[in-house]
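Q: Focus on the chain.
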Amino acid sequence: MGFLDTLLGRSKPVRPDLDRLFALPSAAVTLQAGAGFTPTGLGSVCFASVEGGAFQRLQQDVRALLDADTGRGGVPVEFRQDGYGYTWLLARQEGGQEGIAALVNDLHAVNTLLQEGGFGPQLLCSLVGFRDAEQRPLALVYLYKRGTFYPFAPLPGGGERRDNALELRARALLVDDLRTEEDLSRWFPVWGAPGL
């Protein structure tokens, strides 16, 4: 960082550390013990779509990689486009504490393939879904460009309302497990995200 950057208050962006995703299994144990939320076995990666053959080949490589390690049959990975034009990759594993490590491995592999393929700037976030006994949804969202996590808890029943109290309680529980995003204005809502 140069003198002018310091003088003008600019800072270097945090370099993404994909290995932070591997903290999610221990965070899942904390979340279950402290709030009763268990992993659903669903997780997703969001990225800005890019046109072209290289990106289509990379999507095929991602699908082949994740499809290869499942013996369940069916489609373990899906690509979806949201209303804003972003692409979501939805990965599935066994729910509960048993499947969270495999799900995190899948999400890490997808992020790594995209980054190594030169599509790192298109990566936006990854999330892992949780539910409690009352079927309330909660996601832990990893902001790729910030290298931080935040909880997102939409209120059940549709609409675009969130449970702020639950989000703050989850952050307090996970402060020792995850590097959480301090700037609450960056806790972006991911309405209708696959994996919730």
Summary: Helices lie at 3-8, 24-35, 53-68, 97-119, 164-174. The longest helix spans residues 97-119. Residues 19-186 form one domain. Strands lie at 38-48, 77-81, 86-92, 123-131, 137-143, 148-152.
